[in-house]
Amino acid sequence: MLPDFPKVKKTITRRIGGLVHHRADQDSFLGMIPRFVQHEGDRTSLGREDGTEAAIDFKEPIEAIATMSHQDIREKGPAAALSAAQKIATDITRGLAQRVVNSLKEATDETGNVINGEGKPFSSSLYLDILRTLRLTFDDEGNWIPPQIVAHPQHREIIESTLRQAETDASFVAEREVIVRKQREEWRAREADRRLVD
Amino acid sequence: MHEKLIDDWLTNVNELGYQLPFCEALVAEGYTIIHVSTHGRGEHGKDIVARQPEGPLATFQLKGGDIKLPEWRRMREEVAELVQLPVRLPGIDESEPHIPHLVTNGEIRGDAAESITRYSDTWLSQGFPKLQVWSRRIVLKKFIDAHGSFLPGDLQEFRRFVELYAGSFEDPLPKAKFARLIEAMAAEPMQQLSRREMRRAIAALALIAGYIAEQYERSGNYMAAAEGWTMAAAVIMHVAERERLEPDAYEASLSLLYTALVRSLESLSAEALASNSFSSSYHGLADPYVYGVRVCLTIGWLSAWALDRKWRRGEHVDTERMVKLLTREYPAHRNAGEADWPFLMCLALYLDREWMQPDAEEVVIRYANSIIAVNQGRSPVGAPSPYWSHHKVLKWANGMLPPYTRENFGGHSYTLQQALDMLVRRLRRQAVRVMWPPASKVIFCDFVPDRLADYFLWRCKRGNLRAVQPGRTASWSAWRSETGSLNRQLIPSVLVEHSEWLLPFLLTYPHRANRSLCAFAEAANNRYVKLT
User: Fold this and answer.
1) Is A17 part of the contact surface with chain B (CB cutoff 8 Å)?
2) Per the domain annotation, does B281 fall within a domain?
3) Which residue of A has its CA nearest to B478?
4) Distance CA B33, CA B508 (A)
5) Mean pLDDT of chain B
């Protein structure tokens, strides 16, 4: 056997593995999703606020492949590993995001909580329709937390410019304010329900 | 190699240190231990009283080191008492003969051997039983025979054993590593063992765990020793529950481990109660960084000790000193994470028993509020989960862990619900009412193993982590009735039978302080919870 350094390599491998977590943390979509490590056991069930309970399906692990050629290693040294790790992190993050989107789609299809754009481009009125359908979230002080929009990168610019444009439209702002105000009242009512009763 | 290690251990240990492992070796031979002196020298020179497998009564006086003529002269009267005085214990007829044994982990040297023989012959001629002398070689053989094939034979396990055996005993017990060692000894193939073999295997497990735990004891690291004894007991309870063993297969070993635990806790409490501060001068400049955690660990174990000593064993506890110490040190406690919970729960249970209910409740309220506080806002940081030991939290807080070990603790808690349950049982409705709105936003996590036996494992392969987002509105009366009773089917039966291990178990395995076991801690220590 040629000289090797298993312990050092093990630590480096774990550090590189940390890149995936880091990438997921940094991801604007995945970073929003609360998550925690399950230290033992083989399953998790989720009890919802309404008293219903569902098993969480961990699904198959997401795999990603990166290759490092002997020549890469010779020429680039540790940088070869780093770029391979970055590719793995990117692929896994993408796979994870795709899986979350699929799960959301399954859930919304099931509940019927879907706004169908019917192939039309993103518009401010579609956005208002979305807001009307969603249960909006608010922070502890009642400030509205706008929803995160998940879209294909090529649609991002259109969405951003549409919303920027809409901000200058007084009727859009007023309508949005109506929706938010209404939902804020509903939120307040729900929050007022956080109490201990007989 | 094994022999060399055990030989080394035997050389360094004193008579108190090898007393309990020696008992385990006797159990492995089929002896029934009747009495073990827990506070040093036994009555009438008898440190251990046991019954041989064939029936006769055997008495043992244990000595440490070589016995030369001067030592023999000093101990002669005690040995004469061992030989000449009958066994006076409940259930044993004083007229029953016994076989006295003088045992040492050293050698009989020089003229001592001749003198011992002469005295022994004289006592024999006077009608007393013949003194048996077991020196180092015999004792070592007994230890080695007791292990049988149970000492880690696999190279990987053997290496783990050696690493633990030659560890740094001033540091915390490396519990995960220790668990891997002793749990491997109790792996599933034990099902094939006969009853006698099972008893022997359990004694061997306790003995091997004892080689490591005893060294912490000898180093004065009493909490680590207590954890070691508790972990050995937990693995035995795992086997007992898993195999549905009859008590006679494991009671002897469990009882000896309890004796060892009590001894460690007595030493810990003596040291703590005699102190005027918990400070340590070793690297004193860094001490303030760990002081708060030391306070949490010490007051938790002290409370468990006091509850056990005063209300289970019916022995005296200097309550005034205890309260003075708790009043002095508790303010220094800093919440390190959810692993604090079982320690604070023990403190609350103790204060409760001492009629200091408001203080007990204040401890729980303060803890619950601290968990709520770190779980509020848009990006809550949360508290390290109970899977993060105090040691790990300290390492993390001081930049000693690599970034990839980071976890997200925000928005969920493994222990908040248990703290609130305690307040509900104590009718602290106003306190719960105030806490409920922010608490109801926290996801309550509760891990329950599939098999009750697996509660006693460091990590379970099979089990369900239940994460519950509580409803916004909570009903006080429903909560009251839910927390007032506990179905005993949810608790391992061996733990119900041996509830003396419950608090030490929860202190050693903080991640096992789930809702059911915390309710059982109440059922075992007060009347707030009824076991049904």
Assistant:
1) yes
2) no
3) A198
4) 27
5) 92
